[in-house]
Structure formats: C-alpha cells, structure tokens
Amino acid sequence: MFTLELSEQEIFRRKSLEELRSMGIEPYPAAEYPVTAYAKDIREQFSDEAPRREVQIAGRIMSRRIMGKASFSELQDSTGRIQLYISRDDICPGENKDLYNSVFKKLLDIGDYIGVKGYVFRTQMGEISVHVSELTVLAKSLRPLPIVKYKDGVAYDEFKDPELRYRHRYVDLVVNEGVKDIFLKRTQVFNSMRAFFNEKNYVEVDTPVLQSIPGGAAARPFITHHNALDIPMYLRIANELYLKRLIVGGFEGVYEFSRNFRNEGMDRTHNPEFTVMEIYVSYKDYNWMMNFTEQMLERICLDVLGTTEAKVGDNIISFKAPFRRVTMIDAIRENTGIDIAGMDEDQLRSVCKQLHIDQDATMGKGKLIDEIFGATSEHKYIQPTFITDYPKEMSPLCKRHRNNPELTERFELMVNGKELANAYSELNDPIDQRERFEEQLKLSEKGDDEAMFIDQDFLRALEYGMPPTSGMGIGMDRLVMLLTGQTSIQEVLFFPQMRPLL
Fold first, then answer.
1. Do residues 294 and 323 touch, judged by C-beta distance below 8 A?
2. pLDDT computed for residue 228 by the predictor
3. Domain range 8-145, CATH architecture
4. Which residue of 23, 67, 370, 378 has the fewest CB atoms within a 10 Å radius of its CB?
5. Is the predicted pLDDT of residue 281 greater than 90, yes or no?
6. Hey, where are the domains in the chain?
7. 252-273 pLDDT, tens per residue?
8. 34: cis peptide before it, omega within 30°?
9. What is the largest CA-CA distance in the chain?
10. How far apart are CA 293 and CA 367, in angstroms?
11. What's the mean per-residue pLDDT of the chain?
12. What's 448-465 look like in SS3?
C-alpha cells in the first residue's frame, strides 16, 4: 500500500483546507466563476483619465504582503500578473471579519486560486492594481510552489534543475517566466504553417498512428500488439506512405501534423516521440519544393518573430529567402577534400577509416555515405542550406535524378548544423519502387534494423498510378527550437520522455 509522506508545509495546508470547510467555505467550489478581465488587458488598457473600471478576475496568489487591516497580493492568471489591494473593511463590510482575519491572512497560501471583484486604480507608488471588494476561494493548493526568494542579492528556491522542470512542467510553467511564451510561440508556428497551406487549398488530413508495417522512413519502430486482431502493430515512424496513397486517390495536395515514434536514442535534438509535418503536392518536383519551403519558413518567421532572423546561442540565423543550395557530393568534397562520386562500398569503407568514422558490417553504401556526411559536413551548415542530390542507396522512396541515375532528386535543409526538413521528387514508378524495397530487405538481412519493410499495399496503390509528386517533411520540434532560441528539444516539448522514478 502506498503511504503518502507529507512535509510540514503540506500538513499545514491540509489543516487549512479542513478549517475552511469547518467555516462553511468549500475550497473547491463547483459553481462557474465568470471572468470579465485579464491581468495583461487591465495593465494595457488602464488610463488615469478613464472612468473607474469594474473587473472580475481569477488566478493564483503568487505573493502576499499583509499589513494589518490592508494587504497587497499578486495574482497570476493566464496572461500575467496584477497587484491586488485588499482591505479588511472592503471585503468584510459587516461585523464579521473572518473572511479577512481568518481566511485571507491565515488559511490562504501562495499558489491558491482565488477570484476577486473590484475596480482598477493606480497606487501611490504608481502601480496599476485592483482594489478588491469581493474575494472567493476557488482552489486550495496543497503543495507549496518553489517561489524564488532573494536575500542579500542571492536567489533561493529557484526551480531551475532541468530534470525537475521537465518532470513537473506544470510547476515550471507557473514559476519560471518565459517558459509559457515558448509554447505559445510553438502554437503560433503551427498556426502560421497551417494558414500558409490552407491559403493554397491543400487539405489537412489524419492517417493511422497504429500501422501493420512501419514504413516511410528508415528507423527502429516501437512494437505493440493488437489484441482483437491478434497481430503485432507498430507505432508509426512516418506517415509518408499513407499520404501518398491519398495522392493516388486524387487529392492534389495533402498535409498532416504527425506524431511519430522512433525507438532510438535520446539527446538534445532527439526525443522518441516527436512531431513532423509532411506535405505532398501533385505535379511538382523537388526544385519547386525548395522554393516552396524557403517561402514557407520566411513567412512563419515574419508571423511569429516579426523578422526573418532568429537568434540561437551565438548564431543569428537568417530565414530570408533564397537559401543556399549544395549537392551532397560537393558538400563532402568542400569539407573533406575527398570526392566520393562513383565510389563502391569498399572504397567508402576506406574513406571512413581515413576519416576515423565508425562503421560496421551492417552498413551499405547509403549508410556509409550518411555517416561520412554526418561526421564531416552536417554541423558546418549554420545558415539555411539545401543539401541536394543524394545517392540513390540513401533514398529508397525517391525518384532517380533526371541527369544522373546514381543520384536522387532529394534535398535536406540544414539549419544551425542539423537537419530541419527532408524532401523528394517522389518515386512513382511501382517497378522501381519494388526493387528499392527489395534492396532494403537485403540490408535488413545483413542486420540493419533501420531498413524499410516491403509495403505490398503501398506498391499496389502505386500500380494504380500516382502522378508526379513532391513531398516534404519538416521537424516541427526543431523548427520551434530555432524560432525560440532553444538548444534542447526538451525545452519545446510540454512533457518530454523521462525515465520513470522508482
């Protein structure tokens, strides 16, 4: 049986809870509390010349200064903080002063939710405040918030430990300024991108999260079991193959904000559960998609930041279109001096040895080239750069390059040394696609646990005919990181994956 161990503060707050009830005050009332104003609006709309404004607001008590018959408190709502002036005689006009003396002074604590009615005024110190005439208890907080205190210029009780912040995001959002703004900007990014697509009449869709075959990317899946069908199922690693089925079905442009799952490592830029946006547009190619992508990102920056520049650490990233374009072969050549064009697997292994890059027997040409690029080149592209024309072994779902059958019409957008977006001229030849899948099967048999499965239903769909199409996927979490200046993906996820506490 679980035993709840309470701190001294938690015991005290529970006693206050019972005292409130003994006084006939329900600490968790069921009735609606109508809110007519918010802290930010009150501050921004106040004018000393305007008529007195009556307001009704609600939020958490974040500080208190009790001064006998009158007190000052700070209330925090969803928009910010506002000072309250609370006078005993105003909120207790009759003989009974218990609401002030017993409730506000003794039984309410920092973190409690209250609602207040009153009027807006400016104090002698010049601070816009609410003069409270009525106070209602809305929710009693049974755990003390880690409110920062200062003594002799030193801060105490700061809630800064990353692990605690990510585990207890609800506390992080309450006590740490700026955290909520990151997530508001995240919503703005999504809304701006969605508006950009909708203006072009592309259709937002939903595709399955549970899939019988984990297709559309090279990654290790999470495996589960479907009891009713008695079959293994996989959490999706990508939604690409389902979106292409919709293009086969006649949609000209479709997109989806997809929650994906990859059973792989975790670091500052990877979380096993993450969000990707994928879009597919008929009758387009990867050259069109490069133009489309840079226009989209420039628009989002302007919508969210009001500028095309974002500061990430010491770097100023410019999302002003157009972006630089470099082929993958040229990128490796310019960063290593080695031309890997036309090299076979043995020659690529020799290059890896020369450059001290780890490799193993499960790696084919595509994986070796990917390792070389990742180790020598990727991190050097700080400003947005399209890396184009990948070797075909790296891109089993991508159309062969129109000028070089050993390459594919693919780009990845590198920003701040990391991949942000990935796009193709989509392979729509079902015979070629089957052969590419079979090559992936051979890699799987060699031990590559990220090789793609053969999706027979997707091949069937292609055999009905898919028009020339370009598709692009963009890592939404990484985009939010860039536009909010964060260097860790955990800072832009409300609830990042954590090891459970014992």
1. yes
2. 96
3. Beta Barrel (2.40)
4. 67
5. yes
6. 8-145, 179-323+383-492
7. 999 999 999 999 988 988 999 9
8. no
9. 93
10. 26
11. 93
12. CCCCCCCCHHHHHHHHCC
